């Protein structure tokens, strides 16, 4: 069975989807069978980072219109992606209670399943969060992002989801940025790694290729490779006490 890990931020704009896409590639490059799942049923973006066309999506799977295997895209020899879908027309047909079963099926065909949780704290977020036993927070080094991550952490504790650690993304060194030590102290979550702000990220998005393949020597790519190594070493964590 795979290690299933959800990635969540609480707020949009942290670069969480970019982190999930590239860590998926990094793990696949290290010989792991990986599935990246976009669990955002309203604002799906993961497929865009791989330049995928919309075929069957998680929408179709949750609505009972397609099987899991039909909706998977093989993007690398050891990496498959399941898109969330961009259409809002059929939201009423989606059954979020099926998501945990979908994740279970994916876990039987991979070593790692990385779940890209939607932003916010609606029903779809809770379904994605609780479909996984482990969580990685993706934040920016600013007070609002840290405050939202604190809410996610509390929800993770309530639903008995273990916290593996956090990724601090888009680090620039602005005066308004919180120091790493202060972020760790506030959240009481270990930092798996930091990713610097990097202009190559936008270029990779425009090309429809993950950053670590498009610009492997860029500072952000090197940071993501180190985080992948840290993730491989990190053992499953118990749920935080309530």
Note the main attributes of this structure:
alpha/beta; eight-stranded mixed beta sheet; 19% strand; 242 residues; single chain
Task: Write the topology of this structure.
Elements: E1 3-8, H1 16-29, E2 34-38, H2 46-49, H3 58-62, H4 68-71, E3 72-76, E4 79-82, H5 99-107, E5 112-116, H6 123-130, E6 134-139, H7 143-158, E7 162-171, H8 180-187, E8 191-196, H9 199-207, H10 211-214, H11 219-233
Helix pairs in contact: 1-11
Textual characterization of the structure:
This protein has 11 helices and 8 strands. The longest helix is centred in the middle third of the chain and has 16 residues, at 143-158. The chain has helices at 16-29, 46-49, 58-62, 68-71, 99-107, 123-130, 143-158, 180-187, 199-207, 211-214, 219-233; strands at residues 3-8, 34-38, 72-76, 79-82, 112-116, 134-139, 162-171, 191-196. α1 (16-29) packs across α11 (219-233). It has an 8-stranded mixed beta sheet, with helices on both faces. It has a single domain (3-233), classed as Rossmann fold, CATH 3.40.50.300. The chain is an alpha/beta fold.
Flag low-confidence runs: none
Share of helix, binned: 25-40%
Name the average pLDDT. Answer: 93
The name of the CATH topology is Rossmann fold
Broad shape: globular
Short description:
By secondary structure, the protein is an alpha/beta fold.
